[in-house]
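Intended use. Records like the one below are meant for learning the mapping from a protein sequence to its folded structure. Do not use them to infer anything beyond what is encoded.
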Amino acid sequence: MTVSQPDIILASESPRRRELLAALGLTFVVQPTDIDETQLPGERPDELAQRLSHAKALVASENAPGALVVAADTLVVLDDVVLDKPASPGEALRILRRLRGRTHRVLTGLTLRHGIMDDKSTQLATTPVTMREYKEDEMRAYVASGDPMDKAGAYAIQNEQFAPVARLQDCYANVVGLPLCHLYRALLRRGVTMHHPLDVCPWPVQQGHCDWAATILDGEIA
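Structure written out for the chain above:
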């Protein structure tokens, strides 16, 4: 398959986002951004995720005005409270205890921006995630591995040893950090040719199907 594309900037240093974007068959340059991610007074988590992704895209496009910028910000939200990346192993344990056996939401604000045209779109992907009732020793071993320390909510859904998630809805890739179907429909609108997410997203590749892709791909783009 021949892939045609404009110059693409990924405004993130996340290795998980790099892997997912590369899975679409696209080449891109990584350009991390440094912005203030403080939640504003009265700002809802969904508003925060979208605002931060837009801010990241704006900064990146100012540095590369001819490129198409892809920016994302992913939040783990429990009871409308944003759970940040843990600052210590002890905090990681506390976060995982709060999540254990409960359902939370993973929100990703996804912004595409072309600086020259001032052409931008921002979407919100939402995935309800229910954690399993993992045991204390499992949780401690996982924290000791160091894997939770750079992740919002102190877990990685793709960690096969800990396997923290019991079930989810509406996009596995969103929980990893980059909702591929949302991204695909936005890139397709801009004439980018790439692999179809059902062929490369880890969930349908592993499960053999995805119950949510069609609804997302047929949805509106903000």
